[in-house]
């Protein structure tokens, strides 16, 4: 049996990916910042906490085969504000959190996977990391940094049998965070959240935004042996919002 650690498992994406992994026969160790049933409290920005938890998982399970960081920040004050009115602190907040968290958790996994000679590290970003989107503040640069880091880690870890794949997603409007984000952007444009949702869906090739379940299914595939040839890749899960 494979073992996976999911950071941010209390959120919609982390929870759905955890369920999808479990349905695929993977044992999942869920972590999050907030205490909840079935979740171990681990601050993914805390190096010592992440390392201690990884040691505990390895001691209990015998291996760490998959690591997935689905952590996020509240978006109020970060997105939906024009650059001329955005504070430096608000711009820096995602830049300080997302790359740091992704690196800390990926490094913890890598240190243990190298010894095994195998493993998969998954990261996640969103479509604005690769397109020109207004009102994103530091979010798009932060996601772009995670993508670049993922490629670099793949190059470093590939010779040790460890793969790194970044999921670049769009949509998932059924989540509370995307509802918040769409509301912030809609307010800036003077339209309703539903109108902004429709605008985003229209920009995709399928005319509908990807769902959390679709993202989770892709994560299961990317982490599986069926995707053994995939590493250093940015997996396009945008429904054609980014056509590449």
Automatic annotation (TrEMBL):
InterPro entries: NAD(P)-bd_dom_sf, SDR_fam. The keyword NAD does not apply. Keywords: Oxidoreductase. It comes from the Bacteria. The keyword Oxidoreductase applies. Belongs to the short-chain dehydrogenases/reductases (SDR) family. This is SDR family oxidoreductase.
């Amino acid at each position: 049996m494979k073992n996976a650690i999911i950071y941010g498992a209390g959120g919609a994406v982390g929870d759905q990916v955890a369920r999808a992994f479990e349905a695929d026969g993977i044992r999942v160790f869920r972590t999050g910042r907030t205490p909840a049933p079935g979740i171990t409290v681990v601050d993914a920005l805390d190096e010592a906490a992440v390392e201690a938890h990884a040691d505990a998982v390895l001691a209990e399970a015998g291996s760490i085969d998959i690591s997935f960081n689905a952590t996020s920040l509240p978006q109020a004050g970060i997105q939906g504000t024009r650059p001329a009115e955005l504070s430096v602190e608000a711009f820096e907040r995602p830049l300080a959190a997302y790359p740091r968290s992704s690196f800390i958790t990926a490094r913890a996994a890598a240190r243990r996977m190298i010894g095994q000679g195998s493993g998969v590290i998954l990261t996640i970003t969103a479509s604005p990391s690769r397109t020109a989107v207004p009102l994103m503040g530091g979010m798009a640069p932060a996601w772009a940094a995670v993508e670049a880091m993922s490629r670099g880690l793949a190059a470093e870890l590939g010779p040790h049998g460890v793969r790194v794949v970044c999921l670049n997603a769009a949509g998932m409007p059924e989540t509370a965070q995307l509802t918040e984000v769409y509301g912030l952007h809609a307010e800036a444009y003077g339209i309703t959240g539903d109108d902004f949702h429709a605008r985003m869906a229209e920009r995709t090739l399928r005319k509908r935004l990807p769902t959390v379940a679709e993202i989770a299914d892709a994560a299961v595939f990317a982490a599986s042996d069926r995707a053994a040839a995939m590493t250093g890749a940015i997996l396009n899960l945008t429904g054609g919002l980014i056509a590449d």
